[in-house]
Design brief:
This protein has about 270 residues and is mostly helical. The protein has one domain (about 70-274). Helix content is about 70%, strand content about 0%. The protein contains nine helices and no strands. The chain has helices spanning about 5-30, 45-65, 75-100, 115-135, 135-145, 155-170, 180-200, 210-235, 240-274. Helix 2 (about 45-65) packs antiparallel against helix 6 and helix 3 packs antiparallel against helix 7. The longest helix is centred in the C-terminal third of the chain and has 32 residues, at about 240-274.
């Protein structure tokens, strides 16, 4: 049966209106305290950063193909040590605010009030989110140094998904159960960026960096802790969005699989070869 163009036009208009309504809901149903903060109100800016990031990953190695690697020794030392400081600050803030607010490790709803501690927790959640945007620089450094073997699926997947996960975290649940993820990950990143900061000093530091494999184990441990914490909260009667818990649970499982594969390939397979 032939469909009249007018009917088709109405159907398209309805789909467009639904899309607009959905997008408006994304904008307006967030945490009003964080809406005015940088890169929070709309997903458009972070999506633009994401697209630029993908473009750089695609074009960067091509532009560097006939060029010499850039010497970034000083930049890497400063960058990594700065990230150690930022991670340490965030770990302190997550720990101090959750302690003073008497957060529960089993069930902690988000406090959407304007109390000083609630806003302070929301603010450190934003800093954690912003740190994930800053960490996209890791990829740029790989490209400029022609370390293209480091541009693995795990690396790109982890960096890109974290910015969207924590955009949603700050937009809708800046606090509550989210605090534990930020707290643990900040501590892990203190160790991780300390490792890369020391490595940036040069080959003479290699003998002091025997603990690289344990860094990967530490990363895996954090994912297992997050899974246990989130799974309990998902099935407990707790006033925290189950949708967020399910996303965190699925995401943590994916990271365990990817990091386990990395650990096996990097440390176990190489031993068998030797």
């Amino acid at each position: 049966m032939e469909v009249h163009p007018f009917v088709t036009g109405l159907q398209v208009l309805t789909i467009w209106e639904k899309a607009q309504f959905f997008y408006q809901g994304i904008l307006e149903n967030g945490d009003k305290r964080t809406d005015s903060w940088l890169l929070v109100y709309s997903p458009a800016p972070i999506s633009g950063i994401f697209l630029c990031y993908l473009l750089i990953i695609w074009a960067g190695p091509k532009l560097m193909a006939k060029r010499q690697p850039v010497n970034l020794k000083l930049v890497l030392i400063v960058y990594n040590l700065a990230m150690v400081c930022l991670s340490a600050y965030m770990f302190y803030e997550f720990t101090a605010v959750s302690w003073m607010s008497r957060y529960s490790l089993l069930c902690q709803p988000v406090d959407y009030s304007d109390s000083p501690l609630a806003v302070r927790m929301a603010r450190v959640c934003w800093w954690f989110y912003f740190s994930k945007v800053v960490e996209l620089s890791d990829t740029m450094f790989f490209i400029l140094r022609k370390k293209n073997n480091q541009l693995t699926f795990l690396h790109v997947y982890h960096h890109t998904t974290m910015i969207f996960n924590w955009w949603a975290g700050v937009k809708y649940v800046a606090g509550g159960q989210s605090f534990l993820i930020g707290l643990i990950n900040s501590l892990v990143h203190v160790v991780m960026y300390l490792y890369y900061g020391l490595a940036a000093f040069g080959p003479h530091m290699t003998k002091y960096l025997w603990w690289k494999r344990y860094l990967t184990i530490l990363q895996l441990v954090q994912f297992f802790i997050v899974i246990i914490h989130t799974a309990y909260n998902l099935f407990a009667d707790c006033d925290f969005p189950d949708s967020m818990n399910m996303i965190v649970l699925a995401y943590s499982v994916s990271l365990i699989l990817l990091f386990s594969h990395f650990y096996y390939r990097s440390y176990l397979t190489s031993k068998k070869t030797i």
